[in-house]
Design a protein that fits this description.
Elements (H helix, E strand, L loop, with lengths): L1 H29 L16 H10 L16 E6 L5 E7 L6 E6 L10 H9 L2 E6 L18 H15 L5 E6 L1 H9 L5 E5 L5 H11 L4 H16 L8 H5 L6 E6 L7 H10 L4 E6 L10 H19 L4
Parallel strand pairs: 3-4, 3-5, 5-6, 6-7, 7-8
Antiparallel strand pairs: 1-2, 2-4
Length: about 325
């Protein structure tokens, strides 16, 4: 009887410990800190470092909004739930369309400058947006794509009011791509870089990189993250969201992406109802595809998409 009690106490203690660690991981992953060194990626951590992260969770400082050297306007707009967002509005030589760019997790609009420069070379005005909790926007919290959909809607509404005669193209990287899919505003087209198929899947990849099984760690992290932020992360399912998309879309993936496997990004592309092109960058990782191949890919897709709108496409 005493042995059985000890076993049950051990099981209860392990259950409590797993949930405590998962709660802390969810909190540290979604609440940014004012300063400090960001925790390195799992593949760059020593065994001791991985053990420390397992116990304490990651440290993620709020990203720097950066500086834009091109002539631009610093603009702000409000989301439906009252968050003030910051953005750069940068004109191109021709301004044949407006491209709104949305960054990934724990970064800022500053990381999108190379992609924006390529889009301006292709004749598109660019609007680079800081998500809530990032860069120069308000807040210290991220929901990794869920509430960020409101940010996409706010930025799109602003651009369509500001430039009513121009078609709007949305470009999202990783979390930004997921937020674009969730928002699904009426626009001319979407460029989605490394969209994960399910939030559970990409979190599971991160635990595997730590040498841990996805179950139960990823499931517990999602559960407690949902408790903390008031939504169900298990419903963060870009494949399902993609089924509502009818506008032209370009989905990009990297063959060596450890967080979003090519087949996962392809499943998002396959679910879309509108004309969709999937491109795999054979030397690519998780985003940051800016290159001559990237420029040619975007140029061809934009020409086809914008000519279709004007009625000159075949």
């Amino acid at each position: 009887m005493k042995r059985r009690k000890i076993v049950w106490l051990a099981i209860a203690g392990l259950f409590f410990l797993l949930n405590f660690v998962a709660y802390r991981h969810a909190y540290r992953m979604t609440h940014f800190v004012p300063a400090g060194n960001r925790t390195a990626s799992p593949e760059n951590l020593s065994f001791a470092g991985k053990l420390g992260v397992l116990v304490t969770g990651v440290t993620v400082p709020k990203s720097d909004g950066g500086r834009m050297t091109n002539a631009h306007h610093a603009v702000t707009f409000m989301t439906a739930d009252g968050i003030k967002l910051a953005a750069w509005d940068v004109p191109a030589a021709t301004n044949r369309a407006v491209a709104i760019l949305f960054h990934g997790y724990a970064t800022s609009k500053a990381v999108m400058k190379s992609e924006a420069a390529i889009l301006r070379e292709l004749g598109l005005r660019t609007v680079l947006v800081d998500f809530r909790g990032a860069g120069d926007s308000e807040g210290w919290v991220t929901t990794v794509g869920w509430k960020e959909a409101l940010d996409v809607t706010a930025a799109t509404d602003w651009a369509q009011r500001k430039y009513p005669g121009l078609p709007v193209i949305l470009l999202g990287q990783s979390m930004g791509a997921v937020a674009v899919l969730r928002a699904n505003p009426r626009v001319e087209g979407m460029i989605l870089e490394c969209p994960y198929d399910k939030f559970l899947t990409t979190v599971g990849h991160r635990y595997r990189q730590m040498g841990l099984p996805a179950f139960p760690f990823a499931h517990l992290l999602l559960f407690w993250g949902g408790v903390q932020h008031g939504f169900d992360p298990f419903r963060l399912n870009p494949v399902r969201e993609a089924e509502r998309v009818t506008c032209p879309a370009l989905v990009l993936a990297g063959e060596h992406d450890p967080w979003v496997l090519p087949a996962e990004a392809r499943s998002v592309a396959s679910a879309m109802k509108g004309p969709t092109q999937f491109v795999l960058f054979t030397n690519g990782g998780h985003g940051s595809f800016a290159s001559e191949e990237y420029r040619l890919t975007l140029g061809a897709w934009l020409d086809a998409t914008l000519s279709r709108r004007s009625g000159t496409g075949k």
